[in-house]
């Protein structure tokens, strides 16, 4: 088998994509069968309501499950969609086909105005802002009487009609079901794309998202606006299905209910919210008889699920099945040289740091540091713990804001830009403790690094246009190539959290390489590596250097001496010495001040390492 | 504008500010914003009022009981809802859901035990709710007492953070591992923070009970008002919390004569969004340093 063919077969085998088509056909068959078999208006009413709730739940799952932003306002968003549609149809005589898009758009817009300030700050701000929003919407529905008819509600919402003939209950059920399937496909396509990986990164490890060039706020807003739009669409359907909407239809309880079904089924799994919603409707008697204890039950369920089954029913089930799944090794695969160059012509970049200063309160962590790194060279930063090495790296990569000074990449000043922007300019990095997404596979973690290389918009991704598919395929293949390049090809199906420490470091390097960096910053890549992994790292760095300039923080001085063109020694935030390894390490000031004792220690630990 | 209304606004604003100080007390060492804090305040109010009314306990004993109950509830919350998820991931935000769940449970249990009727609690002895004129402004001695106590508490809390122990607390918030190396046990610190924060919330409940009447509605109300004061004042700033609390109380007092409750909530909410748009970290807050 040729390497190319072998790789293609592995790509298909490890396609992270769930097979969507069978799911869609299966769902559609179920819905049609239900519509054909069930003639009772009551059951059609219930089934349509379930479908409305399913749409809200999968939308909330995109936001709360995948992106980790807990919304307590989805009941209120449902209300806005329902009221906008109902008022447009009843008071202004709009047809459903215009009113439903209006309801969807209004909900998304109101939601975005509400959410933007909170999404900029933090997860818990967002939870509380949405809680306050729920309160406000509920109050306004009751009190803005001229507009919402207050507690009398909006009455007599008609069925949508085609050619003047209104749909019957069965047809409306099928319409709702079809819209649910569309929403499901949208969520599924999105979460399996680079946007989905960025969302999961924001949930599990925002630094990983930033280092891969994924913008935090834009990604959160994408998840939220889609989620709100789905709640609005569900509201449009809900209004028609109920024919009357009143403020009492949308208590705060409803928002909590949606959180509970998402958690119960499995937040951050595709089918979780569907399973959760269905389970809830299968035990309605239980809840009816316990009406006054309902919120208590929700509370206990949320707490219990978070502690004992954070991935819900679907998570627990898939764990059972995963045990039996075979894990193929990528034996004999040596494609490291195939796709490495396929990112286009990446030229190593030069880096200049000018008088950079960073203070934390009264402590000056980095004090007036300057250094020059020629394009295509390897530059080491060494120094004792607390000497400001990692802070310097964080300043260069935009994770910290500088107080003074400049960072110049390829003659262009980049300081002042945020971490995601700097990553997109071609600065890859790793962290002192690897920042991975423990629940995703090794392959998916590597693919996160391809975020900035893909160009397809969310819309193209959701529709599945050729450019999006081509981009995704290329990212997958490049990820495979880089994984085998760093020696992890046999672990590509394993969860990153299960890898031993040394392999996690190598995985992070693969992810950083996937960005196609011109400059790569490595923070103690050799720490915790075994002897054989150390050899691999040294070989790796040698082959990277033709394509990217390397800045490396390292304590293994023999590695530094063998590999690096220039070295900067830092001490207490300032530069102590700078130059070639031989001159720096023989500098009497360096030896006297610091290196002498340290050199001996490092070599001892290196020898003692198993 | 009637100055008596404004004074009443400052007094309820002091309570909102104190709830926000309670959030800060927990946030500094644990990085957890306790969504059940409003319910602990509510429980404090209910227990204090019940002890004073039903058991005819003196105010000071009722307040002590409420503080104790708040501390115990805080400890229970830390044990069942916070420690397990922080153990799994110290930087995760699963606590948003678990503290929310804990608040639902507390609120419903208290509701089932006490029922929906609000309880009125009398102020401690020399103070009373009886009105009198102070420089031509209608007020009562309890109102003035609450305003003064709130200022006193903020001064004491700020002073605490300047002591050695206070600095240790902040050190843990900034770096759990480094604090561990210096002999501070973050687990026990987190536990003690919840006990103290819970006791503090219980005390706020007792202070609030004569003015707001203790009922289960108090929980969500004070959670939101306290959050608004925290967000406007700036996370971590206790002075900011009190000033923002005043602003909330005053706008409420002014709004009450002009707007119905729904519109009033909506206008406060829009103001909050506006403040966050312009100053995402509040009026007195500053951006936290990201840790990589």
Q: What is the helix content of chain B?
A: over 70%
The largest beta-sheet of chain B arranges its strands as 1-2
- Largest interface, per-chain counts? A-B, 50 and 45 residues
Unreliable sequence segments of chain A: 1-16, 324-344, 603-610
What does the overall shape of chain B look like?
A: globular
Characterise this structure:
- Chain A has about 600 residues and is an alpha/beta fold.
- Chain A has two domains: about 20-155 and about 165-250, no CATH class; about 345-440 and about 490-610, P-loop containing nucleotide triphosphate hydrolases (Rossmann fold), CATH 3.40.50.
- Chain A has helices at about 5-15, 20-35, 40-65, 75-90, 95-120, 125-145, 145-150, 170-190, 195-205, 205-210, 215-240, 250-265, 270-280, 285-290, 295-310, 310-320, 390-395, 420-425, 440-450, 460-465, 465-485, 500-515, 530-545, 555-565, 580-585, 590-610, and strands spanning about 155, 160, 165, 245, 350-360, 365-375, 380, 405-410, 410-415, 425-430, 520-525, 550-555, 565-570, 575-580.
- In chain A, strands 10-11-12-7-13-14 form a six-stranded mixed β-sheet, sandwiched between helices.
- In chain A, strand 13 and strand 14 (about 575-580) form a beta hairpin.
- The model of chain A is unreliable at about 1-15, about 325-345 and about 605-610 (pLDDT under 50).
- Chain B is mainly alpha-helical and about 290 residues long.
- Chain B has a single domain, classed as ABC transporter involved in vitamin B12 uptake, BtuC (Orthogonal Bundle).
- Chain B has eleven helices and two strands.
- Chain B has helices spanning about 5-30, 35-55, 60-90, 95-115, 140-160, 165-175, 175-180, 185-210, 220-235, 240-260, 260-280; strands at about 130-135, 135-140.
- Chain B has a two-stranded antiparallel sheet with strand order 1-2.
- In chain B, strand 1 and strand 2 form a beta hairpin.
- The mean pLDDT of chain B is about 85.
- Chains A and B meet through helix 5, helix 6, helix 12 and helix 15 of A and helix 3, helix 4, helix 9 and helix 11 of B.
